[in-house]
Amino acid sequence: MRIKVITLIQPWATLIALGEKQIETRSWWTDYRGQLGIHAGKTIDLESCNQPRIKAALASHGITSPSQLPTGCILSTCQVFDCKKMIIDKNNRIAVPGYKISDREISFGHYAPGRWAWILANNKKLQEPVPARGQQRLWDYDLRSA
After folding, report:
1. What is the distance between the alpha carbons of residues 82 and 64, in angstroms, rounded to a whole number?
2. Which residues, at least 6 apart from 125, have a Cβ–Cβ distance to it below 8 Å?
3. pLDDT tens digits, 23-46
């Protein structure tokens, strides 16, 4: 099965794989809709791992140290359902038109006017991470060869 994949630094890849994060924020728009592999790159953002909401979300799944975060592998698949440009709403808050975004979800991404919210659905964590070398932007991978 050939799929599109995106490489994310940790802890963001794991938050998606665990179903904690349903929106990926990007500086670029995509017209791609369909199955997407979530790849954990080699980098771990240690400062983000210590943010209270992120730390709590990871801990609820037994991850208590950044050293437990897998790197260099595909962790899950999901569906890219939509892609919306972020705006400032009439209450002077960041908004994603057509979606209600929780404060918790906002703490899991980089929300700012002009950035893009990739709306994800149907997340499925792989039974075992699939070692793979990451790439920038969207890239193709054949899960059958794993």
Report:
1. 32
2. 17, 18, 19, 75, 76
3. 999 999 999 999 999 999 999 999
